[in-house]
């Protein structure tokens, strides 16, 4: 495999060595490496003509599709930084990415899947949109949705026109920050996690070695490309000459169809999604092409995944990753020569890069702990982020003096390369697969009529985590759960909207020597009981 750690150079090499080999299969339509190289070069040339230049910031608001990959690779060629936007985001979140992320350009698909992207954009204040130099849109250029965007006094360009018009690309820009994931982190505002060409491609090469990719591998990417889990599934295949299979929207039935039709060898998903595949498949024969399924633990209550994997004859292993370190940075070993296989079905893993190291620190004493003792996981790996975009203070706080990333996760070491993840140390929780900081939701709820204060927790119902909001009302106010829910749906992604609002006169708390601390664990217990007594 070529040693270049620049996306443009790597793609150019693969266009020669794997010319007719499928790079991507999107909705059953195949695109070869040579064709993808031609498309990306042409798109890069036209985007440069529009005015996209090195260090510009381009927000990509697209589902998993060929256009997402073409857009990302064209921006990488030009030295622009991609701000990856979740298609489930609503006005407040999109505005935040445009404003704090300092987006110069926006690429979007206004008519995708009936989602009212134009209306969401219309709900973003004009003052925020003013910084956009243009919006590049997929779809019919005369559609009402695209006309509505133009009516916001925004420059609009058609994506297909930029893709298809002959135009030679400029010389590739050198290594630079190329991709930003958004993460909730531990503060009230999401952080933008910046990676460059070197960290992303080095990690892709590491995945090839660790997960056994070759030119016969077919990797199904169901997680959104906008997040580390989905992007690393994509990049690990794309930069190493394998074939990536995707579709804009995946569910259990469509995934099973893709596995059978395209002879999928690898896929990675949360444990709940993989369990559904095993339970829904008509027979183990569906999975006969599969070499490895990797899972991340998003639903801790699931206990029968191993049993189902064995019944369906699928090799299964636990995974670990983060936006800062990239997804799939660790996987529990299957081969005893690679590590302790007794913890194979637990989250965490053996770091895939030979030079990477893990350690665990006592959060109170600051001492490094011996193997088997739980503390905060710290990792040093070549997949490490460049830093938090425009936030050197947060970057400095997240990294130790000797280069280890402080994950904020609780776990224990098995060796200096293998560990077990146990839980998040803070109050963040996963909703629909996305790590969410409750402060994001609390900020919105506290602006609602009648609400004085809010605390949000993740409640467990069966195998799912659902957000529950506890509120204290303003004097004389009454609860308005229906209108509160409607406003939350307008301003936030649906998975962040509280499933219940519970009014309290005060939040449970404890007074320590330093402060009055709200006891979220007590509210989680209350929320669990509330949901158990209702039908959700």
Automatic annotation (TrEMBL):
Enzyme nomenclature, EC number: 6.2.1.3
Domain AMP-dependent synthetase/ligase: 15-389
Top enzyme class: ligase
Gene Ontology CC entries for this record: membrane
Membrane topology label: Peripheral membrane protein
Superkingdom of origin: Bacteria
Pfam families: AMP-binding, AMP-binding_C
GO molecular function: long-chain fatty acid-CoA ligase activity
Record's keyword terms, sorted: Ligase
Main location: membrane
Keyword Ligase assigned: yes
Cellular localisation: Membrane
Domain AMP-binding enzyme C-terminal residues, every copy: 440-512
InterPro entries, per database record: AMP-bd_C, AMP-bd_C_sf, AMP-dep_synth/lig_dom, ANL_N_sf, ATP-dep_AMP-bd_enzyme
Pathway annotation: Lipid metabolism; fatty acid beta-oxidation
UniProt xrefs under PANTHER family: LONG-CHAIN-FATTY-ACID--COA LIGASE
Name assigned to this protein: Long-chain-fatty-acid--CoA ligase
Lineage: Bacteria, Pseudomonadati, Pseudomonadota, Betaproteobacteria, Burkholderiales
């Amino acid at each position: 495999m070529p040693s270049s750690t620049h996306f443009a150079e790597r793609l150019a090499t693969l266009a020669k060595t794997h010319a007719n080999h499928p790079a991507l299969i999107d909705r059953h339509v195949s695109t070869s490496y040579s064709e993808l190289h031609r498309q990306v070069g042409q798109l890069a040339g036209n985007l440069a003509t529009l005015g996209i230049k090195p260090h510009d910031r381009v927000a990509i608001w697209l589902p998993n599709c060929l256009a997402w990959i073409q857009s990302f690779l064209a921006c990488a060629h030009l030295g622009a930084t991609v701000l990856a936007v979740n298609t489930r985001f609503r006005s407040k979140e999109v505005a935040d990415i445009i404003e704090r992320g300092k987006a110069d350009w926006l690429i979007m698909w206004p008519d995708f899947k009936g989602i009212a992207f134009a209306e969401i954009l219309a709900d973003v204040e004009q003052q925020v949109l003013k910084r956009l130099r243009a919006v590049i849109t997929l779809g019919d250029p005369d559609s009402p949705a695209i006309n509505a965007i133009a009516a916001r006094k925004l420059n609009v360009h058609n994506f297909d026109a930029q893709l298809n018009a002959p135009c030679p690309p400029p010389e590739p820009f050198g290594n630079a920050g190329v991709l930003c994931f958004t993460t909730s982190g531990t503060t009230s505002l999401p952080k933008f996690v910046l990676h460059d060409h070197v960290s992303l491609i080095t990690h892709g090469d590491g995945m090839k070695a660790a997960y056994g990719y070759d030119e016969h591998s077919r990797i199904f990417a169901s997680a959104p490309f906008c997040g580390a889990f989905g992007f690393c599934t994509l990049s690990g295949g794309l930069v190493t000459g394998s074939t990536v299979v995707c579709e804009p929207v995946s569910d259990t039935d469509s995934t099973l169809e893709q596995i059978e039709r395209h002879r999928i060898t690898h896929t990675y998903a949360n444990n709940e999604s993989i369990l559904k595949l095993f339970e829904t498949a008509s027979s183990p024969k569906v999975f006969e092409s599969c070499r490895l399924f990797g899972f991340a633990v998003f639903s801790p209550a699931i206990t029968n995944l191993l049993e189902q994997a064995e019944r369906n004859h699928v090799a299964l292993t636990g995974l670990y990753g983060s936006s800062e370190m990239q997804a799939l940075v660790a996987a529990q070993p299957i081969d005893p020569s690679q590590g302790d296989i007794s913890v194979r079905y637990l989250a965490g893993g053996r770091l895939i890069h030979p030079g990477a190291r893990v350690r665990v620190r006592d959060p109170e004493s600051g001492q490094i702990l011996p193997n088997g003792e739980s503390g905060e996981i710290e990792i040093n790996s070549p997949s490490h982020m460049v830093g938090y975009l425009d936030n050197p203070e947060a970057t400095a706080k997240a990294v130790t003096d000797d280069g280890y990333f402080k994950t904020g996760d609780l776990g224990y070491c098995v060796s200096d390369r293998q560990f077990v993840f146990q839980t998040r140390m803070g109050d963040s929780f996963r909703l629909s697969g996305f790590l969410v900081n409750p402060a994001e939701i609390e900020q919105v709820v506290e602006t609602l009529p009648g609400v004085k204060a809010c605390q949000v927790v993740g409640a467990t119902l069966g195998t799912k985590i659902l957000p529950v909001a506890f509120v204290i009302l303003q004097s004389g106010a009454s609860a308005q759960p229906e209108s509160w829910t409607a406003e939350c749906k307008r301003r936030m992604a649906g998975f962040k909207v509280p499933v219940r609002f519970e009014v309290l006169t005060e939040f449970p708390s404890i007074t320590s020597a330093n402060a009055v601390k709200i006891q979220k664990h007590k509210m989680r217990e209350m929320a669990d009981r509330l949901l158990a007594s209702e039908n959700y």
